[in-house]
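Exam review. A common question shows you a sequence with its structure tokens and asks you to describe the fold in words. Practice with the pair below. Do the first one on your own.
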Amino acid sequence: MHLVYADDKDNVYDHSELYGVGRSGDDLVELLEDDLIPLPPGATLVGLPNTRAVGMDPKTGKMVPLPGNYHAVGALLPQGYTRYYVPGYSKTDKSQAFPLFGYTAVVWKDGGFYVAAGQTDNPEKWNPENCDRGEVRRGVERLLEKYPDNRLYRHLSNCALGYECLTSSNTFLQRWEGGVPVSFACNAGCFGCISEQPEDSGFVSPQTRLQFKPTVDEVTEIMLEHLRTPESIISFGQGCEGEPSTQAKTIVEAIKRVRAQTSMGYININTNAGLTDHMRAIVDAGLDLMRVSTISALDDHYNAYYRPRGYTLANVEKSLKYATDKGVYTSINYLVFPGVTDREEEIEAMIGFARRTGLKLIQMRNLNIDPEAYLNLIPKAQGEIYGMKTLLEIFREELPDVVIGSYTHIPPVTQSGR
């Protein structure tokens, strides 16, 4: 389990003596055999800028910064895998924030790379290696030719070809879960927003937010093109937009038009669910799936990260419960971070939240953030920190009727059908 590090030209090495370590919150910790799995297909190794690699001397157990101009290395995991630890490192320039990605501890072991993570879902559909870029380009050309006046298809073509976003790529491949962004506005000011950051935030958004208001016709065209198979999903609320429910009128009308023409597939929304009245209208229009983004079921932690405007966590809970009671298959997009999500008080609060709302699915999603900036933002731990692996075990035991996964699922088929 040897330390992995890189030089200033991003050549990657494994150390002959020092062991690799991870971070849980602010603490550097030893990595154990049970914490590690082989580097998954579709994962990417990246250097952590402005850092010094840190390893453990196996003879003394001491944490040792690696001398010389060498920086720490982490892994970016595909969907389907939940990280247990952030890479071990020390910053050489604390004024510089990491790019907004979810970094996972990586080591060299038995002739290969291993990561401190576990598989929490079937990764096949979201493995970048299963997305043929040539097929995506041909899909873009075909749909842009078919709908030359649809601005949304033009916007999504940049997401698919420029950013290689898998959800927008699916829109052009017409498979699985495809995206249909609708909103340029948001009712939250998320600290780690990946589509819009204030100039003085210290972060650079990896994506560009939608800059126009789509028409109902544009939205409906994309939805009808995608909903062609029983298992297809079309989703409002993408990484390149704000909060979709701010455009509830457009969404409601589009859903009604689509469902007047086809019952095929599933209509999903990825949302913060803070605008309860808007969410009720969207549910009543014929929504099938709802995925609510959250980082915590504790108000102080939630508010520190999301910085909600005109709503509270209580509104989120009301929206979820309403949707569940109306037969919508509800889930949360749970933004998780080692040393925070696995705190005793966080676990207890989330179990209560899941029970009260009738959640069907918890999607474990690695939070894309600079670790120190995030830890400085949120409340300090109040109780024991159990570890991410133990957190998953507790959820499975305490919430036996809730699926633990990593991405949107369709509801299980019952004897009476959908």
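Now try the second one, then compare your answer with the model answer below.
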Amino acid sequence: MATKAKKNPRLASGRKRARQNVKLNAANTSLRSKYRTAVKKVEKAVLAGDKALATTLFQQAQSVLDSVADKGIFHKNKAARDKSRLSAKVKALALAA
């Protein structure tokens, strides 16, 4: 995939904004990855049928989901929806056992 080389901004404010965008993009990418990893860990524990591990991972995931949503990386409603679905999976696992 060939992308065009970005032109360097002429104005000092534009150059600063470009530098900031690189840093912000890296931070946001890291948080997005942390969010998705937390969700996947809980789902993996549920699939394995490990009730105790799924419960502890879900509690940890809740704080990660909330903090990432508060920073605006994902919408608050998406975080709430993901928490709700994970909670339902963990509860179903607890009832099945």
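Model answer, second protein: The mean pLDDT is 93. Residues 12-48 form the longest helix (37 residues). Full marks require stating both points clearly.
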